[in-house]
Amino acid sequence: MSTRTVSAPTAADLLAFARRVAADRTLVGDLPLDPEGRTWVRLEAPGGAEAWLIGWPPGAETGWHDHGGSYGVFVTAAGELTEQSLSVPLPSEGWRSLELAEDLDRHRVLPEGEGRAFGRHHIHQVVNRSETGHAVSVHAYYPPLPLIRRYSRKGSTLRLELVEHPQEW
What we know:
With 169 residues, this protein is mainly beta. It is 11% helix and 41% strand.
């Protein structure tokens, strides 16, 4: 009797998966879109990863958040998304408020077909800046999200506001 061990997917594996899904015009086109709120469908992902197809109405945004220690990827499948992130890995625990140094902010526009991977301590927010069009994206995380921490940002101060667990999504 043999036992088969499934290895954890790498960030490159997740990015390749997200790109394949984003290129599936039928799957992307079948996602129900809401004019006022984000919509999502859970996807089968490789190696026990968690994955989502997400629809973004005009102006939708995530707010500043992290992924609870999971690494991940996202790829824009339709429209265009903008990511704002911090260029320094922040500790995931042990703080409630941080004063950020200057020049840590990064801004990235991800048009259809573009994506990125990020590490375990990545803090960002994602926005559909379009005033008229929906965007759709594919997201994958490993390990599956144990929690999401939400932050507020005022100037150079980043403050932990809320910790969400999977049963709350």
